[in-house]
Amino acid sequence: MATEAERGLQRLLGVLSEVGARCSGTAADQSRSFALGFAFKLVYHAASAVTLLRERTAITESSPRFLDRTSACVLARAGWESFLLFHHLFIDVVDDDDRRMRWLRWMIETP
What we know:
Elements: H1 4-23, H2 30-53, H3 69-91, H4 96-109
Helix pairs in contact: 1-2, 2-3, 3-4
């Protein structure tokens, strides 16, 4: 039986997959392509978290459950940081000019 956390992550995966499908081929500029990249990064983090939450490992059905709690915390933090950056760059903006300015500033500061 799936835990509440796993059900939430599975729902998130479904929503993000739908967003990705709707965004596919609609990138009007490079920043929107990066927005889609952030969405997929969050999908990968959520999928890994689901895998970590399962009762059995995906390696073999008879393998014992392995959960590295430190890795799970790092994964959760990475997902949260991806969300915060995505929100700052693409969602919490006044208009397209503000979004573009934030994205360009991030691009300049990213090594």
